[in-house]
Every structure is written in C-alpha cells, then in structure tokens.
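Quarterly update, task 2.4: S-adenosylmethionine-bound model.
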Amino acid sequence: MAEHPAYPVGLRLTGRRVVVLGGGEVAQRRLPALIAAGADITLVSPEVTPSVEAMADAGELTWERRPYADGDLTDIWYALIATSDHDANTRASAEAERNRVWCVRSDDADEATAWTPATGHSEGVTVAVLTTDAKGRDPRHTAAIRDAVVEGLRDGTLVAPHHRTRAPGVALVGGGPGDPDLITVRGRRLLAAADVVITDHLGPRDLLTELPPNVEVIDAAKLPYGRFMAQEAINNALIEHAKQGKSVVRLKGGDPFVYGRGMEEVQALAEAGIACTVVPGISSSISVPGAAGIPVTHRGVAHEFTVVSGHIAPDDERSLVDWPSLAKLTGTLVILMGVATIAKVAETLIAHGKSPDTPLALIQEGTTAAQRRVDATLATAGEAVLAHEVKPPAVIVIGEVVNVGPNPSA
Ligand SMILES: C[S@@+](CC[C@H](N)C(=O)[O-])C[C@H]1O[C@@H](n2cnc3c(N)ncnc32)[C@H](O)[C@@H]1O
C-alpha cells in the first residue's frame, strides 16, 4: 500500500477507556498526558517503574499485575502497546486491528495504527509535531521542532501577531535577580507582548534590549544615591498607560512583594479600577546567595532563614527591626539593602550576643556577569565593605551556611 501521511487529530479521551500494555519507561513517559486528558486508564503489566506505581497508588490509573492476555483490548477507545515482549506486542496490535482500536506501538512504528506526536503546550495551545510518513520518522527531530515552537511562543521570540490576545491592564512582573534566564516563563511572555514596560534599575535589564522598537520602555529607576521617580509618579504612569488600553508591564527586580513596593502599586491600580495581574519572581534573597554557592538552609546547620531590610540603621528611630531578637536566632540572616549599614548592624548583633566570628558574605550584583563575593565575619564586615569597595545591590548572608559549600577561593 502506498504510504500516505498520517492524519493528525486530537483525541478527547475524558472518561474513555484506554489500555496501556507495559509499565516501563515508555509507559512512564506517555502516561502523564493520558492522565491529563482524563482517560480511564487500565495498565496491564507484571511490573512497573516506581513512578508508574506512584500513579497507580494515587488512583490515576488501574494497574493489573499480569502480562497481556488476548481480550484486553476489547471495548476500549485507544491502546498504547509498550511491553518489552515483541511477540506480545505483535499479538496485541493484531487484536487492536481486529477490534478497530487505534494503537500506538513503542517497538514498531510501522505496525502501529497511530503515532504519538511530540507535544508541548503554551497558553492554551497544544503544539503537536509528527513526521509525514513512517520512513521519515525521526523522533529527535520532531521533538526539536516542538521545543523550538513551544520555547519561542513562551519567551515571545515567536509571536503570532494577528491572533495574539492583547490584555489591557497591568502585569506586575517579578524579573528575578538579574540574569535574564531567571525570569519566569509567564513574565517573559507578558514582556514580549507588552506595549509599555516600566522598569527599575534592578532585575533583568538585558531583556529590555530584546523588545521590539514599538515597545515604550520607561525607566522608573530608584537609584540608591541618584534622582528617583516617586512611587506616586510610577503609580500614575501605570494608570495612565493602562487607561489608554495598553498592555503595561511593571518589571521589578526579584519578587514584586519582597521590598518591591508591589502591593502599593496593586492598591493604586485597584483604586483606579484597573485590572492587574501579579507574576511572582525569584527573589534575590535566596537566589543571590545560591548563585554564590551559599544555601540559605542546610541540614544540621541552619533550620531557618530570616530576610531583613538593612536600609535603616539599627539606632535609627524609624527602624522596625528587632535586632536584639535577631541576634538570638541560630539560623541564617539575609540582609537586603544593607551595604551602607552593615557595620552598625554587625555591631548591634555582636552587642546582643552573636559571635563576632560568625561567617558573613556579601554578594554584589548576584547572577550577573559582574557578580562578586566578599567573605568576612561579623567583626570584620564593615572593614570588608570599605576594603573591597562593595557597592549596592548586594545581598549579605550571616551564618554558618556561608562556609558549608565548596570554598570559592580554594
Ligand atoms: C528594593 S530591594 C528589592 C528586592 C527584590 N524585590 C527581590 O525580591 O530580590 C533591592 C535589594 O535587593 C538586593 N538585590 C536585588 N538584586 C540583587 C542582585 N542581583 N545582587 C545582589 N543583591 C541584589 C540588594 O540588597 C538590593 O539592595
């Protein structure tokens, strides 16, 4: 028979009986999609992998612990034949053919009546890639095409402009600590679809260079020692642009709600009746220490970590931080915005009982090409900042966790 291209179709399997023969690696890879499709799955196999067993234990499928037997493929809609026994697979696919059940075969694509495409999902769309005929089958190639399409749709490098649904309103996007790869998939996609981006000096600035020329980028930088745009002005800019029906992204460093004043913007938008969606980001408080080889917790060393703002010195009456209590904690202290105040903070912690020898690390511009780490102790922190000219943005980690990783200077 002349080879014709396979006919692509989406099976709606909710509540419909599907039989999977074999419980090995192939079944393990294919089962999640069948479960996600809501299929009523019976898996027939004397043995299964631990992951497949976990699916059975979770009630996601019914596992019959036995080999395939003639009659297993009656009254079903679809079969996945993937045992390690070629003869059993051949008998099963013959039964599927007799019963007019579409069947996929892991060991012999020519004998199958259906092929599983390489699939991926992006924003309510399933991308499914099949080679045209059996001779040209190249699963790695189809998977690579799938990856390219899905990745492109997710990160916005592949845009379908005529069908793109523009979402007027504001997305408050956490951009992560600085490395452009550390923004979330959702954040990157919203950025790619924005009309206006209002950004800070922190976060993934490199992503802004990728934006199309029609995107208006507004710098709301609140530089530590320079001119700054008042929060009110930022709120007004967000409101004004959103009222013009534009898709506005407010791009922030790290997570919007970790010293990011994100909720003030959410509140202002709510008062103005403007839709706002919040996209969490990877906070520098955890990721910057991690990027410098410091885990904020470690078994047997630190069972808690506390993130503190150091922007107000301990002896300043505006300080809301209970430094004496923090000095008593045995876990890790992570200080943000603390470069200018670290000498006073260290002095206060020591005065309230923390050992002067407690290890401390300052990580400047973490996750970026300019990242650097300066190690010190609580007693030497102030000097270290001056000697090494540590500048913001920097995360300061205080605690034994500083020394648990491989020594960066060894
Ligand atoms: C206003 S706070 C914003 C924190 C941000 N929302 C987050 O979740 O990471 C700014 C402080 O975060 C820290 N920070 C942010 N990004 C950093 C980076 N890439 N390297 C070092 N510190 C960083 C610094 O302590 C900086 O002074």
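Highlight for this quarter: Residues 177-178, 202, 252-255, 258-260, 283-285, 288, 336-337, 363, 365-368, 392-395 surround S-adenosylmethionine (CB under 6 Å).
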